[in-house]
Amino acid sequence: MPERQRRAPSQPGRVRRAPSRAGSAVPIDDEQVIEVAPLAPLPTARVAIHEASTDAVAAVRAAVVAQGFAVAYAAVGAVAIAEITKRLAGDAMPDVVVVGLPAGAAILDAARALEPRRPVLIAAVNGSGQAAAERAHGAGADLVALRPHDERLGPVLFAAAKLADERRRATAARGNELRLRERLDRMAQVDPATGLQPMEFFQRALELEVKRARRYGYALSVCMVRLPPPADAPATVAAELRAQAAAALSAAVRDIDLPVEIGGDRVLILLPYTDASGAERVARRVATAVAAVRIGKHAGVALAGVAGVAGGAALSLATLMRAAAAALRDAERGGEPVVVAP
């Protein structure tokens, strides 16, 4: 008897189970699982109709209703051309327009002038095959419908509604992209006088770096710096000294560090991939660079408080900020210009 036919007889009340593969299963990370988005609902559309005869209009109307779409307007001849052209420029623009050629060519021209915000255009023509497609394409239509209108028009209307929906999404995406680019341009505009990042950009970067540090277990530190103004300097000199000191601070930090003014005479520096000892070295370099700034008899001063966590350690941003602020207060009370939180 062949080996594959040698099976133990089944016993009543017992269920044969496949051998477990748990021991050889490969663990799957959540990030390796690809979520499949659910299908979008069927498209809807408001359709305007122009045709050369009332019978043709009635046939198109019936096809529109059969698809579950709404008839925004339907008429024949010059009246339809004028009304649809008017609606193209108004708030009640239809999503799809069925245009009978050759009489309705003016509707196609008016619609194309509204790019990129225009309805999907279906040209109704006589004939068939490539000749009909070339005629519709040459007139500027997106799709072609063959006369006489029958059940073949349904799929064309469905495709037009889908295309209209995709165009709306693309237009919205372009608008969102433009707004995002403008926002990023504003946020990424470093102050040319001080080299400090805008607060909005810093807050977003701070959120991202904290999430990454928690997820991947790398070190993270913050350094709170005070640039106190000289007590006996005129206001104009103090302001210029402050600007030069901030610029020296920005030049002294590394490319990966993010300095931002947090109000008054204080600057906060985010130091990714850096533990407390590394942040201390950066802070001392900042203090040295600021002390080299001089206007007349007045010199720059930088006092710094540093707090950080090593890679893999528990991370709390609030705790880091409080520790850095406390270390800065210790520096302000005298002694070392740079104090590291315990």
Task: Pick out its properties.
about 350 residues; five-stranded mixed beta sheet; five-stranded parallel beta sheet; about 20% strand; about 45% helix; disordered N terminus; alpha/beta
Mean pLDDT: 82
Profile the largest sheet. 5 strands, parallel
Strand order across the biggest sheet?
2-1-3-4-5
Question: N- to C-terminal separation?
Answer: 78 Å
Helix-strand pattern, N to C?
EHEHEHEHEHHEHEEHEEEHE
Give structural notes.
By secondary structure, this protein is of the alpha/beta class. It has 9 helices and 12 strands. It has helices spanning 54-66, 77-88, 105-112, 129-139, 153-187, 199-216, 235-252, 276-291, 317-332, and strands at 46-51, 70-76, 96-100, 120-125, 143-146, 220-226, 258-263, 266-272, 294-295, 298-299, 303-309, 338-340. A 5-stranded parallel β-sheet has the order 2-1-3-4-5, with helices on both faces. Strands 7-8-6-11-12 form a 5-stranded mixed β-sheet, with helices on both faces. Strand 1, helix 1 and strand 2 (70-76) form a beta-alpha-beta unit. Helix 2 (77-88) runs parallel beside helix 3 and helix 7 crosses helix 8. The radius of gyration is 35 Å and the shape is elongated. Residues 1-24 have low confidence and may be disordered.
